[in-house]
Amino acid sequence: MPHSLRQRVQHLRDSMRFLALDPSYHRKQQNKQQEEQLQMIRRAVLESSRLELHYQKRQRLDRIPPIEPRRVDPYGMVNVHGALYLIGYCHLRKGVRQFRLDRIRRLDVLPERFRRPEEFSIQQYQPEQNRNLIVRVQFPAAMAAYVRESRPFFWETEKETEQGLEVTLRVRDEDEVLSWILSWGGQALVLEPSSLRHKIYEQARHMIARYDPEG
Q1: Environment class of residue 182 by beta-carbon count within 10 Å: exposed (0-12), middle (13-18) or buried (19+)?
Q2: Which residues, other chains included, contact 39 with Cβ-Cβ below 8 Å and sequence gap of 6+?
Q3: Given this model, what pLDDT does residue 23 score?
Q4: Burial, 51: exposed, middle or buried (Cβ in 10 Å; 0-12, 13-18, 19+)?
């Protein structure tokens, strides 16, 4: 490679590091797979090579989503609260999308080349514009630090009130945020929309029925 390109590659290598905190074999294999994917994405970004992803979206409560093949022009990567995302043009969705690396089940670098739009900036990139559903959730003040540690990609704003921490989320649909809210159990109180409150109520009823000792 030309000297200037070697310098760019070395800069990328020096700017990222993976540590396996869990000594288990499964976690080590996960880190190894993600690091291999990261190396492939780095190369594709530098060489403007198209990628083919086998991608699995966020799991829903009612079903495991299928793994979809996607052809993506990789523009760059961002780190959102510890999770790495690939940003690029998705030929299936006909627009710029983000792909969380730990949901990529398979990754191939294709011989096809692409040209990144000159006006695109990874520093100014904003998530999908079709996240138009506003969700407000309230947490006890004592839980604020823990909630902030696990803030999801669709976290928009937060404010402290007399009742605790109020978080505003911007999502595509209610299913996208349902699992995250339920993971907090009784510590999370949905303020809006009312349809999501009803959905959580129905989920709670279903859980009670499953664990009823007399059922």
Answers
A1: middle
A2: none
A3: 47
A4: buried
pTM over the 0.70 mark: no
Extract the runs of DSSP E, i.e. beta strands, from the chain: 49-56, 67-80, 83-90, 95-100, 104-113, 133-139, 155-161, 164-171, 189-192
Closest CA to 50 of 128, 122, 108: 108
Q: What CA dihedral angle connects 79, 170, 185 and 81, to 10 degrees?
A: 10
Strand partners, 52: 71, 108
| Residue closest to 122 by CA, chosen among 152, 156, 81, 77 | 77
Is 31 exposed, middle or buried (CB count within 10 Å of its CB: 0-12, 13-18, 19+)?
middle
pLDDT recorded at residue 20: 46
Note whether 147 and 119 are within 8 A (CB): no
Residue 86's nearest CA partner among 101, 105, 102 is 101
Preceding amide of 193 cis, omega within 30 = yes
Cβ contacts of residue 173 below 8 Å, gap of 6+? 133
Single-letter amino acid code for the residue at 130 = N
Spatial separation of the C-alpha atoms in residues 109 and 96, rounded to whole Å: 18
- Mean pLDDT per block of 10 residues along the chain (215 residues) reads 69 51 47 81 91 80 73 87 83 88 90 90 69 92 91 86 94 85 93 94 88 76
What pLDDT is attached to residue 58? 66
Residue 83: the pLDDT is 74
